[in-house]
Design a protein that fits this description.
alpha/beta, 275 residues, 5-stranded parallel β-sheet, Rossmann fold
Length: 275
């Protein structure tokens, strides 16, 4: 059993409720990445997931991690673990400035105090000015193997492409009850799995009338719906994982000035070429 599924059993799925796609993404890996972008709107669980990931990285249990019961896990939860470092805009400031990131970078080369890893949580990561992001890029590329970075962002697309390319993006969807696309997301998920080529392409016509906020919400909810179908159709798991991955890439691209139809067309081309 993967570390994340072990943790979810303790949390009664509260951390990733509505974000099962992220749980599936994490549990499909044998090891944690050195850098994640946790992207999602306020209330989507970015901070809770960052705590869970930090606990998993410094946990001292010999079994599945995080155990949530060892001294290290308790310290992370209390915000006092010496190897879990938080960075945010200074008091009364709007930006994370380059001096803060340079300080972080210098600290990253000092070995951990207690744990086997050091974890840097950067809250409101898009508030880093370009100089700060470029300074962070150096440690993302060449940092020590024990250093890990968790960047929290309402929208990953607000970060420099060079930063995004060096991180694994975990896209969190709105909390249950705030799912404005419900039936449409369910319909699109089923089309992507079993619709004919014509049905899939024709559906794209209806997307042009959506504003960007509703379009991105549809993408998020469709990814969540696909994960639910994976339990009903385990034989389709490879295709589902591929579709979820494509939706996440499309979600990131949606932050740019590109029409919904063009974005959906890319999704269709990528899916149908693998059929």
């Amino acid at each position: 059993m993967s570390w994340i599924l072990s943790a979810l059993s303790v949390f009664n799925l509260s951390v990733l409720t509505g974000n099962e796609a992220v749980g599936l993404q994490l549990s499909s890996r044998e090891e944690l990445s050195h850098a994640y972008i946790l992207s999602g709107p306020p209330g989507s669980g970015k901070h809770a997931l960052s705590m869970l990931l930090a606990q998993a990285m410094v946990c001292t249990s010999q079994g599945p991690r995080p155990c949530l019961t060892c001294n290290a896990c308790h310290k992370v939860q209390a915000g006092i673990h010496p190897d879990v470092v938080h960075t945010a805009p200074g008091e009364g400031k709007r930006d994370i400035v380059v001096d803060q990131i340079r300080s972080l970078r210098s600290d990253a080369y000092i070995r951990p105090n207690e744990a086997s890893r050091k974890v840097y949580i950067i809250d409101d990561a898009p508030s880093m000015n370009p100089s700060a992001q470029n300074a962070l890029l150096k440690v993302l590329e060449e940092g020590p193997p024990y250093a890990a970075f968790l960047l929290l962002a309402d929208n990953a697309g607000m970060l420099l492409p060079t930063i995004r390319s060096r991180c694994e993006i975990l896209s969190l969807v709105p909390p249950p009850g705030d799912a404005p696309c419900g039936d449409e997301a369910d319909k699109l998920a089923r089309l992507l799995l079993s619709g004919t080529e014509r049905e899939v392409l024709e559906y794209g016509i209806s997307l042009e009338k959506l504003d960007r906020e509703r379009f991105t919400a549809l993408l998020d909810e469709t990814a969540a719906a696909l994960v639910k179908y994976s339990r009903e159709n385990p034989a389709q798991l490879p295709r589902i994982l591929h579709a979820v991955d494509l939706l996440k890439k499309l979600r990131s691209a949606a932050s740019f000035y590109v029409g919904n139809g063009h974005l959906y067309g890319w999704l269709c081309a990528a899916l149908l070429s693998d059929s």
